[in-house]
């Protein structure tokens, strides 16, 4: 008999499309550097194996009214600072990217494409990954689709990393280095948890991989009391090395039982708590 409350199963991203991975691998080191200036370590999420069971179990403990996970004798919630350090993105003194619908005309101009009226998908504000990959994912894409571009090959080369960012995040404006996606990532995680908990959606459209990493970091207690968010390591790239002593739960029932009886976690360092209140 299942220990998990009877709720609909949640759907979520369970891996990155092969073309998106190939696109990343096709970039030169210089192009990858341009992308990491905008996305931090997010492309390295390719290395993380999704575990839908931990996300589904976490949702059962989510309190949408207070925006926290409520366990047996403690509460926990992701913070801006944690997203900041997990992704190695900038946040302080930067504007926020606010996702909103874009016109097809602006989208084409943004990427240096001619306005193709035949692409009716833009009427619903979406574009197929295959469309972007074929035109920006390969080194010879410009030559193959020359007639569709309104820009020079030099300009196209500059926009290749931006097209990848759009494909990965699904939003425009990430080429502006004065803007940050950190609040957007956190808000989308909160919204996804809340919508599913309230029965408004059966698809987790937040960054489930970051939520998964965040949760395991806290549930894996280490011998030392160092706060992971004050280290300079690449948290995504080194995730499995840090978790090698953590005994993973397997399956939804095991994860739910693990969380339901959890009475302790990897705590925040005292200086971090003080910093949250502006005292450090």
Descriptive key words:
mainly alpha; 7 strands; three-stranded antiparallel sheet
What is this structure's SSE topology?
Blueprint: E1 11-12, H1 18-26, H2 29-39, H3 52-59, E2 62-63, E3 68-70, E4 75-76, H4 80-87, E5 95-96, H5 104-111, H6 129-136, H7 141-144, H8 153-169, E6 179-180, H9 182-197, E7 203-204, H10 208-219, H11 239-242, H12 252-260, H13 270-276
Parallel strand pairs: 1-7, 5-6
Antiparallel strand pairs: 2-3, 3-4
Helix pairs in contact: 2-8, 3-12, 4-9, 6-8
What's this entry about, in short?
The protein is mainly α. It has helices at 18-26, 29-39, 52-59, 80-87, 104-111, 129-136, 141-144, 153-169, 182-197, 208-219, 239-242, 252-260, 270-276, and strands at residues 11-12, 62-63, 68-70, 75-76, 95-96, 179-180, 203-204. The protein folds into 2 domains: 39-88 and 190-276, no CATH class; 104-169, no CATH class.
Number of domains: 2
**Which class of secondary structure composition applies to the elements?**
mainly alpha
Structural shape: elongated
Strand order of the largest sheet: 2-3-4
How many individual β-strands? 7
* Total DSSP helices: 13
Low-confidence stretches at least 5 residues in length (pLDDT < 50)? 171-175
Multimeric organization: single chain
Round the Cα radius of gyration to an integer and report it. Answer: 21 Å
Determine the mean pLDDT.
77
**Binned strand content:** 5-15%
In angstroms, what separates the terminal alpha carbons?
49 Å
Helix content: 40-55%
Largest sheet: 3 strands, antiparallel
Q: Which sequence of SSEs, written as H and E, runs from N to C? A: EHHHEEEHEHHHHEHEHHHH
Organism: Solanum commersonii
Protein name: DUF7745 domain-containing protein
Pfam families: DUF7745
Domain DUF7745: 26-92
């Amino acid at each position: 008999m299942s220990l998990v409350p009877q709720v609909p199963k949640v759907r979520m991203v369970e891996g990155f499309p092969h073309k998106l991975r190939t696109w990343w691998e096709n970039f030169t080191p210089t192009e990858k550097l341009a992308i990491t200036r905008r996305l931090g370590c997010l492309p390295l999420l390719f290395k993380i194996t999704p575990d839908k069971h931990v996300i589904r179990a976490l949702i059962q403990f989510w309190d949408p009214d207070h925006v926290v996970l409520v366990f047996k004798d403690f509460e926990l919630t992701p913070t801006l600072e944690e997203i900041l350090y997990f992704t190695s993105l900038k946040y302080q003194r930067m504007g926020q990217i606010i996702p909103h619908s874009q016109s097809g005309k602006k989208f084409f101009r943004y990427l240096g494409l001619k306005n193709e009226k035949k692409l009716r998908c833009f009427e619903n504000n979406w574009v197929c990954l295959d469309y972007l990959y074929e035109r920006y994912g390969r080194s010879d894409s410009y030559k193959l689709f020359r007639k569709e571009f309104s820009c020079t090959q030099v300009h196209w080369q500059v926009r290749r990393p931006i097209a990848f960012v759009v494909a990965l995040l699904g939003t425009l404006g990430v080429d502006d280095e004065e803007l940050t996606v950190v609040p957007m990532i956190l808000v989308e995680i909160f919204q996804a948890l809340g919508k599913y908990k309230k029965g408004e959606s059966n698809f987790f459209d937040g960054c489930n991989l970051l939520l998964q990493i965040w949760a395991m970091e806290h549930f894996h207690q280490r011998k030392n009391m160092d706060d992971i968010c004050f280290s300079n390591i690449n948290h995504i790239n080194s995730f499995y090395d840090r978790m090698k002593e953590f005994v993973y739960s397997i399956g939804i029932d095991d994860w739910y039982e693990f969380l339901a009886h959890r009475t302790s976690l990897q705590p925040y360092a005292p200086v971090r708590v003080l910093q949250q209140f502006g005292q450090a």
